[in-house]
Amino acid sequence: MRNILFIMADQLRADYLSCAGHQTLQTPHIDGLAKRGVLFDRAYCQAPVCGPSRMSFYTGRYMTSHGATYNGVPLRATELTMGDYLRPLGYRVGLVGKTHMKSDDDGMKRLGVDPKSSLGVLISECGFEPFERDDGLHPDQLLDPDLAYNAWLRAKGYASENPWHDYANAGEGPGGEILSGWYMRNSNLPARIREEDSETPYMTDRAMDFIRASGDQTWCLHLSYIKPHWPYIAPAPYHNMYGPGQMQSVRQSDAEHRNPHPVVAAFMQHEESVNFSRADVRDIVIPTYMGLVKQLDDHLGRLFAFLEQSGRMKDTLIVLTSDHGDYLGDHWLGEKELFHEESVRIPMIVYHPDDAADATRGKVDHAFVEAIDLAPTFLDVAGGVPQPHRLEGASLLPRLFGQATPLWREAAFSECDYAFRPARHILGLPPDRARAYMVRTDRWKYIAYEGFRPQLFDLQDDPHEYADLGESPAHAGLREELAARLFTWMRQRRIRTTLSDADVEKRTGTAKARGILFGVW
Q1: Alpha helices in 409-473 (DSSP H)
Q2: What are 260-272's pLDDT values in tens digits?
Q3: Which segments of 345-499 does DSSP mark as H helices, in order?
């Protein structure tokens, strides 16, 4: 068995790493991990928004299958997660940072599970031992009085009821007034906190605390960083480490703005999209986003050094990824949720310490990888029995070991439930109609919207997805083919989760032997 370090950075775009092609943002420590492992450059999340994406990571199941379709939608108490697979195999399975999981309180009540019991805590925390859970969103209206990070900050001298907001995520005006990081106009200010006391170094320290506390016990740690997710504000010196001249060119076309798909048009009306469409806003926010990524890389370097010094790099599988991307004004949009590459494609680097992985070290693998692949990969690493009747992903170990994988997938899929967003009201939809689905093949990306025409993009000739071929007569046959592929995927969800295929085989045709005689003359 191997230790497993599962690192996730919230809202980190796949192309905001120097090993992935960013020309000015240097991430040497993440690049170093890629040189020691494999960079999967066509990895996709199953839903480009925090909650459902993470639930797919944790369960190894598509959004349609696990049912937690948006932030705040509870994950069913009966859904198995990474912890449920790994803990019986001797793993301590811990969490430091964010899950964005909402517990199924009604489900636990129906089953008679006390949420405060040991089992209830695990069900409430996605199967993780909450060594330190912190979802990183603590406005005064939602403030948890027991937030450990706030207590730690107050002990360090940050005098406030909510130092997360007043110091870690706020700047300071010329008269000493607190300027909230929630307002993007303040993004270029340094946060009112010492760099070493900000969220990224704090969570790095807590991860090292968990590893030390685990001693010789085999562990899986989900280290889930809060940044570079908004509020977009960084401590000095990261707040002004980059400037507008070091930004990537914005990916916008006049054509996609003049004649957008109706659903995309509705998202373009969201406040974050209107603001991010402005060059002056991007010039303030994106350099700070880059600074937050740089800070993340620096502290990952500190974590990797700790693993080297403690001997853990020799016995730990390491995964670095994110839950989704960030539009940052590309395609006239802000936030995420839709299916452009900037939103749905994610970074994915996997390092395996075994000699068997030497043949693939430093390789860029162009295979389609999905978030749901991590749960079966971790089960494989732990030596567990495969669970294909539940897990919808595939183990990455054969690819890490350079083994032939002829049955590897030919497409990636993702889903969207935008019922909670203003776009639904703009479009006049009831909550159960605000749905969309993506299938991405080697060349094509097809998006089906409930109640609207589809979109189609040729990623070979139009890699930035400017030309929507959703109504092109010349591509009607192709759209039908991709719609059929999407329908096939929908029909093949793992819905018989309580019985394995092997058990079905054992039972098939045995009724008569068990004395059940139907249709006999």
Answers
A1: 422-427
A2: 999 999 999 999 9
A3: 374-381, 397-400, 422-427, 476-491
Which residue from 21, 93, 45, 49 is spatially nearest to 30, judged by alpha carbons?
Answer: 21
Q: What is the 3-class SS of 158-225, one letter each residue?
A: CCCCCHHHHHHCEEECCCCCEEECCCHHHCCCECCCCHHHCHHHHHHHHHHHHHHHHCCCCEEEEEEE
State how far the Cα of 433 lies from the Cα of 419, in Å rounded to an integer: 8
SS3 59: helix
- CA distances (Å), origin 469, targets 177, 259, 342, 348: 51, 12, 19, 29
> Sheet of 455-458: strands edge to edge?
412-417, 435-440, 444-449, 455-458
| Confidence class for position 404, pLDDT limits 50, 70, 90 | confident
- 320 strand-pairing partners: 7, 349
Q: How far is Cα of residue 130 from the mean position of the Cα atoms in its chain?
A: 19
CA 164 to chain centre: 23
Residue 1 has pLDDT above 80, yes or no: no
The answer for residues whose C-beta is within 8 angstroms of residue 261's C-beta and 6 or more apart is 449, 452, 453, 455, 468, 470
Identify the CA nearest to 334 among candidates 285, 277, 293, 260: 277
To which H or E segment does residue 456 belong?
strand 455-458
**Token couple for 344:** 């749905």
pLDDT digits (tens, 9 = 90+) for 451-505: 999 999 999 999 999 999 999 999 999 999 999 999 999 999 999 999 988 898 9
The end-to-end CA distance of the chain, in Å, is: 56
Rounded to 5 degrees, φ, ψ at 442 are -60, -40
Task: Give the three-state DSSP class for 277.
Answer: coil
Q: How many CB atoms lie within 10 A of CB 278?
A: 11
Residue type present at position 276: F
Question: What torsion do the CA atoms of 309, 311, 312, 317 make, to the nearest 10 degrees?
Answer: 120
CB-CB contact of 406 with 91 (8 Å): no
Q: Omega before 260 cis (within 30°)?
A: no
Tell me the pairing of strands 92-97 and 129-133.
parallel
For residues 266, 267, 273 and 277, what is the CA-based torsion angle, rounded to 10 degrees? -70
CB 332 within 8 A of CB 255: no
d(CA 191, CA 181): 8
Q: In a 3-state reduction of DSSP, which class is residue 110?
A: helix
126: nearest Cα among 175, 173, 68, 182: 68
Single out the residue of 160, 292, 299, 155 nearest to residue 229, CA to CA.
292
